[in-house]
């Protein structure tokens, strides 16, 4: 099982501040599963803009965080190395609890079916072990710009 800090993750995926949402990879089994952490703070503008004064994470941003976690899993595979993963579709997304500043969001992504340059992943998000959201994401992988 592997771990990664944010700087190492940025070597895999193209996202950068202010739209980089993976603080660390706490567990990675290539081609199978990845678990990432995102520590939410009041200093993040996207938390204060959704519901001013509440510091709540928008569900759409939780999907983006799931997609970035999925990109780590997908692009760590030798099959997709040095490529870019794109979110193609979202199915069965549910959100059960609000996530707010001060929470440590854990996202676990499990690889599903993969065919050629596309596939699915199952994502589950939790805070302190309690489920807060889940979704099935479909992805497409293509050559990176300049590659």
From TrEMBL:
The keyword Lyase applies. GO terms for molecular function: lyase activity. Keywords: Lyase. Pfam families: FabA. InterPro entries: FabA_FabZ, HotDog_dom_sf. Belongs to the thioester dehydratase family. FabZ subfamily. This is 3-hydroxyacyl-[acyl-carrier-protein] dehydratase FabZ. It comes from Lacticaseibacillus manihotivorans.
């Amino acid at each position: 099982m592997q771990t990664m800090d944010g700087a190492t993750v940025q070597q895999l995926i193209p996202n950068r501040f202010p739209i980089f949402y993976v603080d660390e990879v706490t567990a990675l089994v290539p081609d199978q599963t990845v678990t990432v952490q995102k520590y939410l703070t009041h200093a993040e503008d996207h938390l204060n803009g959704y519901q001013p004064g509440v510091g709540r994470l928008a569900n759409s941003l939780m999907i983006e965080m799931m997609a970035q976690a999925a990109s780590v899993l997908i692009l760590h595979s030798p099959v997709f190395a040095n490529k870019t993963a794109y979110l193609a579709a979202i199915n069965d997304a549910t959100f059960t609890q609000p996530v707010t500043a001060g929470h440590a969001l854990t996202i676990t992504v499990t690889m599903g079916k993969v065919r050629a340059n596309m596939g699915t992943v199952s994502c589950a998000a939790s805070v302190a072990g309690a489920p807060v959201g889940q979704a099935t994401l479909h992805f497409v992988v293509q050559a990176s710009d300049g590659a």
